[in-house]
Amino acid sequence: MRMIDLIERKKRGKELREEEIRYFIEGFTDGRIPDYQAAAFLMAVCFTGMTDREIAWMTDAMARSGDQVDLSSIPGVKVDKHSTGGVGDKTTLILAPLVAACGVPVAKMSGRGLGHTGGTVDKLEAIPGFCTAMNRADFLRTVRETGACVVGQSGNLTPADKKLYALRDVTGTVDSVPLIAASVMSKKIAAGADAIVLDVKYGGGAFMKTAQDAVQLARKMVEIGRACGRKMAAVITNMNVPLGNCIGNGLEVAEAIEVLEGRGPDDLREVCLVLAAQMLFLAGKGEVDICRQMAQKALDSGSALEKFRQMCAAQGGDPTIFQRPEILYEKAKVYELAAPWDGWIQEMDAEACGRASMLLGAGRETADSVIDPAAGIVLCRKTGDPVKEGETIARLYTGRPDQLEQAKKELLESYRIAGEKPDAVLLVHGVILGE
Ligand code: URA
Question: Does 157 sit in the ligand 1 pocket, CB within 6 Å?
C-alpha cells in the first residue's frame, strides 16, 4: 500500500477501504507516514469528506491506537459526557456529582483548555490541592468508593488523535465534520463508558457556527457511538452567549458550587438539567422527564453538593471552597466595565469574551502558557438584558494588568447594545437520540 495512492483517491472523493484507513492511522501514529502526506490527506478530507463507514473505521483505528480504559470493575452502567467546547462551560463540574448523586457512577477523563475555550482539568485545578493526575487503579477505586471522579487524560490514550490534532491545528484542517467526529468519538470509545451524552455546541463561541452544522456533527457522532455498541444521545446547545455568568477557572468553580447549592444562573442550571436527564435516561433510571425531576431534586436537596464535597475530598481539594468560595478568585484585582450607552444587549460575541478572559490570564494562548486560576470575567449583563449608560456590565479579574486594556476593548466590542428588546435566546436547539 502507498500513502500517495490514498491521497490521490481521497482527493477525487473516492471511498477508501477499511484496511487503507487503518494503514493511514497506524502508519502516521508510528511515524512511517510523514506529516506532509498526512496533511495532504487531511486537507483532501476537508474538501471531499468521508462516508459514514470511513468515519467509523477511522474512529475505531484511532481508539485502538493506544490504551483502552476498562471500567468493568465499577458496577452499573457507566455514563460519560462530552462537550465540543465553549466559553463558560462548567457543566462537567456540576454533572459529575449530580449524576453520581442519582446513583449513576461517573468515571470521567477531561481535557485542558486552549485558546478561547476552557478545559475542565484547568477548572478543577483552580481548587487548591485538587489532584487530576491519578493512576488508573486509584481512579477506578475513587469511582467505586465515591461514585464520581474526574481526572486528566493519562497514559497512552488515543495517541493517533494527539498527533493528528496537533497537525490539524497548524494545517487549517480542524473544522471538518468527519475529522472532528472521529477525534471526539475515538477518545470517548477508548475511555470505556457504556453510554455517552454529547453536548454539541453551535454559535460564535463554538466550532460549529450554525445549529444545522451542529446537528450534522451530532448525528455522525451518535451513529459512530452506536456502531461501537454505546448508548448515545446528543444535545444541541447555544454557544452564541457564554454559559452562566462566569468565565475563568476559579470563578467557574464558584459558580458551579452555586448551581449545586440549588441557585446559580438559569441558563447554566437548565443546560445541566437537560444533560443530566439524558445521562440518567441512558443509564436506565426511567423516562427522560422522570430523570429530569430526579436531577432537579438532587440539586434542590443538597445531595449533589454533598457528592461534590465527597469528590473534592477524595481528590485532595481544599474543603474551604465550600465555606469561602472567594478563595478561588480573591488573589486577582477587580476592574469594572461600564455600558457605553442605554439600550438592550442584542447579542454578544462569545468567542471574543473567551479571548478577553484568556488575555486576563484565564486561558492558554499556546499549549505551554501558564494559567492564573483567579483570572476571568463575571458578566453582570448578558444578551436580552437592559442596560443604562455607565452601569457595570462586567467585572474583570486579573493579576496581569498589562493586558487589561486590550481585554476590556475585546470584551466591550463583544457586546452589541441597541434600542429594541431582542427575542429571547433559544438555549437548547434539540436532542438527538441514538435510536
Ligand atoms: N474536540 C476534539 O476533541 N477534537 C476535535 O477535532 C475538535 C474538538
Answer: no
